[in-house]
Amino acid sequence: MALAVHAASADVLSGREFQSLLASGSEGTTIVFQGGTDKVFYSPSLKNTLRQSKELGTEFLRRQVQHNTIAEGTFISAMIEDGKWRTISGIAGIASDQESGHGVLTLIQTFPEDKTVAAFQKTDRLYAVVIVEETISGILCRRSRWEKLLSFKGDLRMESVPCEFTVGNTVTPTTLPAEQKNH
């Protein structure tokens, strides 16, 4: 079931509108980028190992990473790279940009050994951001490439691609690329 998106001022969703969009399905929401092979499933209620740890619990992003975070959850991202499925999972936060009010979804990769702030801080990991806007031609997601959190220098390069939102987790690949079917 595709979800409708309501425009904010300047046609970019605000933080609260982004939160409402992604939290509209009790089981979470999948963002499907143009072509359908790149997807991000966001759940405000599912918990991974990090979200269950005492030190890195549900307020971790707001306290330690992005103080303007208004909602936190987990994510699973799937994409095809070089003909093979690649998945990245971790924690996600929806923040409201302090200058514009635009909603920004930040995705940060996590690992099973992330049980303390010290463990989280010593391992470089991937991160990406997504911003949703409504245009004359439809819904666009401005998204960054996955970059290393600790070692990345410079500004994130953003690309705009058509996207849609589906209730539930549709990230799990239902068909494999031809190379993987034979293995």
Q: How would you concisely characterize the structure shown here?
A:
With 183 residues, this protein is α+β, with helices and mostly antiparallel strands. The protein has one domain (9-47, 71-167).
Characterise this structure.
Helix content is 15%, strand content 39%. The chain has 5 helices and 9 strands, in the order H-E-E-H-H-E-E-E-H-E-E-E-E-H. Strands 1-2-3-4-5-6-7-9 form an 8-stranded antiparallel beta barrel. The model is unreliable at 1-10 and 174-183 (pLDDT under 50). 33% of the residues are buried. It has one domain. It is globular and about 45 Å long. With 183 residues, it is α+β, with helices and mostly antiparallel strands.
Helix and strand arrangement:
Elements: H1 15-22, E1 29-33, E2 39-43, H2 49-52, H3 60-65, E3 69-81, E4 84-96, E5 103-109, H4 117-122, E6 126-135, E7 138-144, E8 147-148, E9 158-167, H5 178-181
Antiparallel strand pairs: 1-2, 1-9, 2-3, 3-4, 4-5, 5-6, 6-7, 6-8, 7-9
How far is it from the N-terminal to the C-terminal residue, by CA? 33 Å
Number of helices: 5
The radius of gyration computed from the alpha-carbon positions, rounded to a whole number of angstroms, is: 16 Å
Q: How much strand?
A: 35-45%
Largest sheet: number of strands, sense, barrel closure: 8 strands, antiparallel, barrel
User: How much helical structure, as a percent, in the residues?
Assistant: 10-25%
Biggest β-sheet: strands ordered side by side in the sheet: 1-2-3-4-5-6-7-9
Give, in order, the helices and strands.
Answer: HEEHHEEEHEEEEH
Q: Could you say which overall geometry the principal axes of the C-alpha atoms support?
A: globular
Low-confidence stretches: 1-10, 174-183
Judged by helices, strands and strand pairing, the structural class is: alpha+beta
The overall average pLDDT, rounded, is 77
Overall structural domain count: 1
Per DSSP E runs of 2 or more residues, the count of β-strands stands at 9
